[in-house]
Design brief:
This protein is α+β, with helices and mostly antiparallel strands. It is built from six helices and six strands, in the order H-E-E-E-H-E-H-H-E-E-H-H. Helix content is 46%, strand content 10%. Strands 3-5-6-4 form a four-stranded antiparallel sheet.
Length: 181
Amino acid sequence: MALTEEQRKRMEENRKRALEIRKKREMEKERGETVEGFFAAAPPQEEGLQHKKRKVDGANEPKEDKKQRSNVLLSGEREDCENSDDESLEEFERDASAYVSQTEAQKTYCLPKGTIDVLSFIERDNPHQRGFSKMKLYSRAEVRRRARKRFGGKSGLITEREKRKMKRYEQELKEVKCLRR
């Protein structure tokens, strides 16, 4: 089965476009603009990246206005883990990404969903499948600050994390004991 001239032309255009995309990604990687697969320094207009900051005030606004309201974060407002005092970082945070997912923020920093909902975030296309809803990534420094404020500092957060870990362990132990009977 022979290809028509139109099919060959389309194939050549697609090949050139793919090479351009690959070259662009390699250049961005060389400049260090990616953070664990996410473009950290890209402007909001590029490829689905939207910076948003939630407002806590405005309690008397209608719900629709609250959902639609968002402010663009300036690149200078982004708080990296590297900019923080290294002594106050926990061991797992030292080489970690500047952003955390909602699930990681809830599990690692023991924050409830309500607290996470008021934090600033960036939206990225879901890496598992483009058709899924957008993924929200929160600034690790801001999440850490909120968690430490909530639990009374670094030691309070560590204590809370250990307490929850023990609670999960005891719950699993109960389930195993119930299964043995």
